Amino acid sequence: MWESSEEKKEAFKVEALAHIDTLYNAALKFTYNRDDASDLVQETYFKAYKFFGNFEPGTSCKAWLFKILKNTFINKYRRKVRQPEQVDFDAVEPYVDLIRDKTLDPGESLDEDIFKSHMSDDVKTALARLPEEFRMVLVLSDIEGFSYKEISDIMDCPIGTVRSRLSRGRKLMYKYLLKYAKAEGY
Question: CB–CB of 137/171 below 8 Å?
Fold first, then answer.
């Protein structure tokens, strides 16, 4: 495919790196944490570069990258559920005040800080309440603008499942946001 590693690097820069901001925004919506989102995007690009020979030129690189992002997120989530991270509190207690983020209010979580200027608190809360499979489809469709076919490829599920999850996710969002919409005059 490429005659040299330099050609591969250039092709990767042109095709894949153009989508880094979009992937990061989606990763934030999946993880609700800047560091986790950065790690997720970094791991996605590592895998994408490693397997760039499998990418079919002429197809949607953005959809291919989102599929890697989604699979990486799900695999990390499953790993985390099976083996939650454990920390010996006695070992870190003396350092708690040193690592505490002074820019956040004590009662404010990091995800609220991240999305403060992008979505209202009610919308963020409603989105966070959605089951993961509905939230992922909703983010890919309504926020990132992917087609049903692209979401189907990214999520490795039939288009009918995408439509069903999107419909159910939107109904849940409607239910969660009904009071908010009335208060805002919608």
Answer: no
Distance CA 84, CA 76 (A): 11
Per the structure, the complete domain to which residue 161 belongs is given by 120-186
Do residues 70 and 129 both lie within one domain? no
Question: CA-CA distance, 109 to 63, in Å (whole number)?
Answer: 31
Question: How many domains does the chain contain in total?
Answer: 2
- Determine the Cα–Cα distance for residues 121 and 105; give it in Å rounded to an integer: 15
- Distance, CA of 25 to chain centre: 7
Residues 69 and 134 in one domain: no
pLDDT for residue 80 is more than 90: no
| pTM exceeds 0.90, yes or no | no
Q: What is the DSSP string of 138-177?
A: HIIIIIT---HHHHHHHHTS-HHHHHHHHHHHHHHHHHHH
Average pLDDT of the chain, as a whole number: 81
In a domain, 162, yes or no: yes
